[in-house]
Amino acid sequence: MSPVDKIALFIDGANLHATCKALGFDVDFKRLIGEFQSRGTLLRAFYYTAITEDQEYSSIRPLIDWLDYNGYTVVTKATKEFVDASGRRKVKGNMDIELAVDAMELAEHIDQMVLFSGDGDFRCLVEAVQRRGVRVTVVSTIASQPPMMADELRRQADEFTDLLELQAKIGRSPSERPAAREREPRDRPHAVPERQTIAGAKGNDNVLEQP
């Protein structure tokens, strides 16, 4: 990246959380935004996550509040409940459309797009942004088993950065004790312990299943 490049970050919150969990470290979001501010002109840092509205306490809310006050543009929407074919109640949240719309709207104003996601569904978005002259870096990992990075997305991107390579720059020190644990809805919520989270390979759909 050139120091004069205009950069935008697009963080798929659920996917990044699942990737960090697979690699065994937490992201320090203050260090993350600082890292990319040092690489060029950071125009926007978007963070996308679905939230469960009916819980008395959502473990993701402290993180959302912190990001809001510290340079990130947080995009949220409420999860939706549905009953699957086997009669099991599920809660689902998907932020693909919101991320794609923002990326397309901003494409003419940036030189570099950094996408924190390994979800193969974003391949078409990356291709569309590239046609507008934007270079795209995708951040995920192939170091986990199974890999969090979809092969088709990796092939489409101009550059692939393994999140493991960024750990020293954006990881939280083990000695640091966060004020609130930064969790995405795919962790089991304390408020409703009977629910468990199903983490798909894509890591983008937040689905909670209740037996």
Question: What topology emerges from the helices and strands here?
Answer:
Elements: E1 6-12, H1 13-23, H2 29-37, E2 41-51, H3 61-69, E3 73-78, E4 80-83, E5 89-93, H4 96-106, E6 112-116, H5 123-131, E7 135-140, H6 151-156, E8 159-162, H7 163-170, E9 196-198, E10 206-210
Parallel strand pairs: 1-2, 1-6, 2-3, 6-7, 7-8
Antiparallel strand pairs: 4-5, 5-10, 9-10
What key attributes describe this structure?
211 residues; alpha/beta; Rossmann fold; 10 strands; disordered C terminus
What's the oligomerization state? single chain
Strand order of the largest sheet: 3-2-1-6-7-8
Approximate strand percentage = 25-35%
Number of domains: 1
CATH C-level class is: Alpha Beta
Report the mean per-residue pLDDT as an integer.
82
What is the CATH topology assignment?
A: Rossmann fold
Secondary structure category? alpha/beta
Largest sheet: 6 strands, parallel
The Cα radius of gyration reads 17 Å
What form results from the Cα inertia axes?
Answer: globular
Q: Could you tell me how far the N terminus lies from the C terminus, measured between alpha carbons in angstroms?
A: 48 Å
Instruction: Report the helical percentage.
Output: 25-40%
How would you describe what is shown here?
Helix 6 links the parallel strand 7 and strand 8. With about 210 residues, this protein is α/β, with parallel strands linked by helices. It has helices at about 15-25, 30-35, 60-70, 95-105, 125-130, 150-155, 165-170, and strands spanning about 5-10, 40-50, 75-80, 80-85, 90-95, 110-115, 135-140, 160, 195-200, 205-210. It is about 30% helix and about 25% strand. The termini are far apart. It has seven helices and ten strands. The radius of gyration is 17 Å and the shape is globular.
